[in-house]
């Protein structure tokens, strides 16, 4: 049974059969070709048996290994390397099939190559998950054939390996490296000049053009006989909370990824940057009920706690209760904090229903309301209308875009910080706003 399960006919064999059939057909008009065709059949049969002997005379002469990471990063390209080798004493042609998880909906994965005796090779492919959870990779299958390419032998390796897909770890690491080297401007983050005295004193340094003259230290200037200024840095260990709305408004997908997952990826990347800048970070999820809550702590290992809580968050079909959010924040967050609220409003009436609760939150805390541009509507607006129906659709789309701007202006009128962003630019704009608030000393 093992032999039958591993035994396959190569496609080239059927080409040989087609040639022989053509010979028999032609022999109807060319009789001399008829005995030649029978000789060719006997030759093919001998080669068929010889090919079986070549492939099955030894044991497992082909090996392959798939190296999966411990965690996959959601919404990112994750490389999956595969190494394979052959111990056959002849040139081996291999076809590698990896049974990908059903979430990817890919059933045509195949990699073909050839190997000399004892040769070892490696290739990698990328997968981009768009949902968190467990992904099961099936069998790693290798079909080997000899230079005759008449039959194939099937080898099966690494059955059913499960890998969890976590929030975007790759994106978090990307901003992490840039934050350590103070190179956040390379990915579009604004460079903000820090001024004023609402920050912690760091050192006294020589005056250079561009420094605020109000920070001149006259005593140090008299001692050094040159202008010296006080240098300040951001106040540290301030509590910052990412609050994620898990209601139905966060189910909308853009580029295959739900708004909730954009918010989760941004929370992870932002929390890492804030921790590296010595602030306390925490998170809270809410909808009709209160979800996971992580108190703000200034500890790098605290990021793992946030990551595990974010992994299990999912959207609900109900409308979120902002009154419950206000009561929860009032009870659990006693110190003045920076609250980053990830939510979405598609209509100005939806904002007005929740505005009293947002104003109540903004009285004690620095509240930043983050909501999203509808990029699909932007594409519709950018296209030319070809008929009356197209004009109608563009008009409605422009109306929704204007309403988004009106919501942003209305929140600012009440002193509430806002971020209106495209989903893919969420992390960059969130970190920008954090740096701006720290620079202005609003917290």
TrEMBL record:
Keywords (A to Z) from UniProt: Membrane, Transmembrane, Transmembrane helix
Protein name (record): DUF58 domain-containing protein
UniProt-listed InterPro entries: DUF58
Pfam families in the record: DUF58
Organism the protein comes from: Pricia mediterranea
Stretches that traverse the bilayer: 12-30, 36-57
Ribosomal protein as UniProt keyword: no
Residue span, DUF58 domain: 204-368
